[in-house]
Specification:
Radius of gyration: 29 Å
Distance between the termini: 53 Å
Strand content: under 5%
Order of helices and strands: HHEHEHHHHHHHHHH
Helix content: 55-70%
Structural class: mainly alpha
Number of strands: 2
Strand order of the largest sheet: 1-2
Length: 368
């Protein structure tokens, strides 16, 4: 190469006389200054690694939330508030009829007659009596339930290690959901007590603003937690069934009913799976937790009542069956909607939906 050629090249941009691959790289650097080099193996898994790099444009989408970071748990907590508070408030009419059927079966003999009695005696507004303590109580419960479930699921998985976490994942779901519900019910219990009293004793109070002071004056501040143990008895089995069965059902759906891997399914399809899995899980939840639900309603309605009084008055058969069909419809719809809303919120903030086929545990390698 002579001096004239060298001089000519020194005055021209290098990409005009380099090879085609080098020229493409240089053009990309000029046209896309925000790009950064990425190894070929990371850029495209089908391209064999053999050195070199390609450029990809820096993403313009909002920064995604890092899994298991404080922001991740905050997002799950917010999703729990939306999913539980809104859904429980929406089914207040069903809950109102159910509670009255449990407390006064002689008057509220069936679902249809229960709605008719409420309509005649209290009008349409009566169907939403107690909606404020319902919204506040179950929003607080949902925040703790979903937020702490994600925390405890990760915590117990880390304790077990990758191999045992995959092998005993159902036990981890059960332990994580039970731990979360213990905390969630402490947040729910005061509002649940006021809600039941307002819904089952006409004339007691219009709602939370006057119902809470009346309840405290009548029962004392500790009376707000009189139903905590029965509430644990209702909600802990319910939540264990809710989360463990949901995770298992969703995994089975993706594994056997949908031929496409979860990460390749559209978001609407994934949310549909979440709702279906939640509805089926809700049916199991209603059956498992119904006896304790009858106890909670009985204890919060009758001053000074005990568990023995409830069992004596309701009987074992009534304890397991009174109001059960309505509760199956209510809890199935409720649980399906909760999982749908919760996962929709996670998708909205850039997180993956809950559940799916678990990846196999990484093999343990021995150090040389």
């Amino acid at each position: 190469m002579d001096l004239t050629e060298n001089a000519r090249r020194s005055l021209l941009p290098s990409f005009l006389y380099t090879s085609s691959s080098s020229r493409s790289l240089a053009i990309a650097k000029l046209m896309i200054p925000c790009c950064k080099p990425v190894p070929l193996a990371e850029a495209d898994p089908e391209v064999p690694s053999g050195g070199g790099s390609v450029l990809i444009q820096a993403p313009n989408e909002p920064r995604k939330i890092e899994m298991y970071s404080p922001m991740f748990y905050a997002a799950c907590t917010a999703g729990g508030i939306a999913s539980c508070g809104l859904t429980h408030m929406a089914v207040t009419p069903l809950d109102l009829v159910k509670c009255n059927m449990q407390i006064d079966p002689a008057k509220y003999k069936s679902i249809s007659s229960g709605f008719g009695i409420l309509l005649r005696e209290q009008g349409l507004r009566g169907f939403f009596r107690g909606w404020v303590p319902t919204l506040l109580g179950y929003s607080a419960q949902g925040a703790c339930k979903f937020g702490f479930y994600e925390f405890f699921k990760k915590y117990y998985s880390d304790i077990a290690g990758p191999e045992y976490a995959a092998k005993y994942k159902t036990l981890i779901y059960l332990a994580g959901s039970a731990s979360a519900e213990v905390i969630a019910d402490v947040a729910l219990c005061p509002m649940e007590a006021v809600k039941v009293r307002v819904q089952t004793q006409p004339g007691f109070a219009r709602g939370l603003s006057d119902g809470l002071p009346k309840f405290v004056k009548s029962e004392g501040a500790l009376g707000l937690y009189k139903g905590l143990v029965p509430l644990w008895g209702r909600q802990i089995p319910y939540t264990m069934m809710k989360f463990a069965s949901f995770e298992t059902i969703v995994e089975k759906i993706y594994k056997h009913a949908i031929p496409t891997p979860k990460d390749q399914c559209s978001k609407p399809l994934q949310l549909g799976v979440s709702f279906a899995g939640g509805y089926i899980a809700g049916v199991f939840c209603a059956i498992v937790s119904h006896p304790a639900d009858n106890l909670v309603s009985f204890l919060n309605n009758a001053k000074g009542a005990t568990v023995g009084d409830a069992v004596k008055k309701l009987g074992l058969w009534g304890l397991f069956t009174r109001g059960l069909p309505l509760r199956i419809v209510m809890i199935g719809t409720l649980t399906g909607a909760q999982w749908g809303i919760y996962d929709a919120f996670k998708v909205f903030v850039g997180l993956p939906t809950t559940g799916g086929v678990s990846p196999p545990p990484e093999p343990l390698t021995q150090k040389n």
